[in-house]
Amino acid sequence: MLFYRSMKEMHTIYNFDLANCPHLINYRNDFVLGCLTGLRFSDFSELMKDDIRRDMLYKKQNKSDHLVVIPLRDEALNILKYRIDNNVGVPTNAEFNPHIKTIAKFAGITDLRVHSNFRILGSSGVTTKETSTYSTTILIATPAILIS
Asked: Which range of residues forms the domain containing residue 55?
């Protein structure tokens, strides 16, 4: 999946009140997690407690077999802790995409583009745990450190 979002729009989606649609909360959280980590759906859907160390995510990617180390923003860390502590199941990719579009519409974002043939990573801006700078309509991702 490739999500084109500004940081402001991602925060709008993350902070949108889904109390009337609680079945969408985990989809929303997974969307935000994917945006903030830059992981493929196949990778972020398999994250485990042991993958998190000192606010960093250590993940061996399924497709490339490379280990990446990703600094986690507070939002991503909170989502991961919630998923692990509550044993939240992960939907299929086919379930995930339509629900994300629904959530975006509820949050007032009508031009969400989801492309399942690409991964989230890279941007014309910089994301760290402390700051984010982006031009309009770019990829949201935390830079990953590739370890050979």
From this structure: 2-147
